[in-house]
């Protein structure tokens, strides 16, 4: 094994036990439910299903006013909100639609599996809280919406199937197999450590942020085999991004046809620094930027975008009604 002088810390056993209990309760609650919402095949006569917005943050929610405007445009029966906030950070409760949405959170740090745990924790809480939560959208504090809520909801739940026929909804998660950094990322915990559970041929990379179906969320909460490998501390932190590997690898192995293999969150990697994407600054914020960020080569427009600096809030709010939420 090689070392770089830095090494990630293991997840505390107490956190593991707390999470295991939470995940088991979420899976059990869904199993007991007689509703069909735990599955990905839904008919055209279902009642209103919800999008669960899962905010993962280690700072204040800088764009809370923009998100509040986004959510206030539609009845709450169409969405749920859950926030996992880093306990050591001074994250203020922004009030409004976010008040009381904070879940019990654990410590997270970059280049560690704690970010996987936080995402699973958010999904488990959402499943326990409301059986109508069907899509689970993971979002960061530097992320903004690119469309109105109505446009986003119709885009995710649109059906072109004949009346009465079931529609197979998919998870919008990036799954890539040919990235040049994949060998280093695979060996971040040491040579051959991922074997036999995860061979290099099955190892995948993707965006940290996704929109996942309830079927896949439950699969992730029940999963134990791959987790034993991905939770191991990295000995090369510069190639360690577990949250970008665990979900794409697992879903690629278990249900590749149930995933789009692309994300709905637009990120600009043209001038990334230290593994972070381009951060947009106020002078860059314009209607043209929003239109550009929406544009996609896939079957869906991008619905979210990151990364924006906190001081972008004012120019974003200035054009919220006429541009961002004007579809």
From TrEMBL:
It comes from the Eukaryota. Pfam families: Branch. Keywords: Glycoprotein, Glycosyltransferase, Membrane, Transferase. One of its GO terms (molecular function) is glycosyltransferase activity. It is found in: Membrane. GO terms for cellular component: membrane. It is a single-pass type II membrane protein. InterPro entries: BC10-like, Glyco_trans_14. This is Core-2/I-branching beta-1,6-N-acetylglucosaminyltransferase family protein.
